[in-house]
Amino acid sequence: MFRPLPAFIGLRYAGAQRRGGDSSGLVSFISGLSMVGLILGVALMIVVMSVMNGFDRELRERILGIMPHGTIYNASPDIDWPALRDQLEDNPEVLAAAEVWQVNALARKGREVTPLLVQGINPETIVEVSNIGQFLDPQAFAALGDPAQPGVILGRGIADKLGVGEGEYLSLIVPSSESDDGGRRAARLAGFVVADIFHSGTALDHSLALVSWPQAQALAGGSGGAGVQLRFGKMLESYWTLRSLLQQLPSQDFYGSDWSSTHGNLYQAIQMSRNLVGLLVLLIIAIAAFNVVSTLVMVVIDKHSDIAILRTMGASTREILLTFVSQGALVGLVGAVVGGILGVLGALTVTDLVAGLESLFGVQFLKSDVYPVDYLPSELQWGDVALVVGAGFLLSLLATLYPALQASRVQPAAALRNEQ
Predict the structure, then answer these.
(1) Where are the transmembrane segments (predicted)?
(2) H helices of 362-419, where?
């Protein structure tokens, strides 16, 4: 069976075939260490990049799925908000629009008090802008408009802090504030029954409450806080789309904000963390490739006599060079491929693994009042896998060039004379 001489000898040096009683066992052991380092580096980088992809996905699909891409406000009490909603929704850049009335308030249950953002909504339009309905009972929105017992929908974080459950009562308080004429508005208080508790797994669980539009208007005292929430077709262009919409409105009293003003820092932090962590893990792969250099240098030193004998038997400089390149390429190929497989398995199971550890030890590693979500997300992208595996193999291949060049320059006479 025909086997190219450089690849055959390189395979033996890499430890595919061992002989007892000589130094090949040590060479194989050192090659194995280099391979293990490369495997761990590649696998770790794939898992880290998948986790960063997961955080990016959760921001786009979960957090910004509940919150709007942009909101337009006006402090005037005379705005026809349903008509304005229909006007904005006719814009081709706007996928959906919903009127909302926002009030900063305090929720109280017994002695427990917590601040929150109360949103007065229209159940028929809010589901077009937000996916909050995915986390609620289908009948929850209907309970908000009960005039006898007005309902409120709370995030789980708020409910846990207040110690309140579904069907129980709590009070919403809007503190006193300064009016337009310089006087003071009295604090407003209203009682609500908890219609439902949503758990989105995001920071919104600790800050958001939903009531009906009339109830929010009453809490606000009929002034300010009203607006139209918008969902855009191009999320990353929401700032420019919002500015364009504001310029098309007849009054200069309209103003707005988009998701980048509230969650833009989080988005930038995720992107920066992904780049920095990716760079650090890439350095781990580079260190593993450096181990390949040290391994092959030791092989060259150990195999001086073998190289000299091959040269005297007619092996060319090119064949000697390819012998050690093939050894390093084998280490790099096996390390990158096995690391890629382990990385894919890790990326697919890391969410369940962390959840299992949390359940086993009774701790929560991520909390949504500190982190964007309360679990470790992961999204495997095959482009990242190909990039990492290819980079690991390429670095290993480049690492073989210096030792291989040193081996090709061995002088047969001098090497054999030193062996005597």
Answers:
(1) 26-52, 276-300, 320-338, 345-365, 385-405
(2) 382-399, 401-408, 412-419
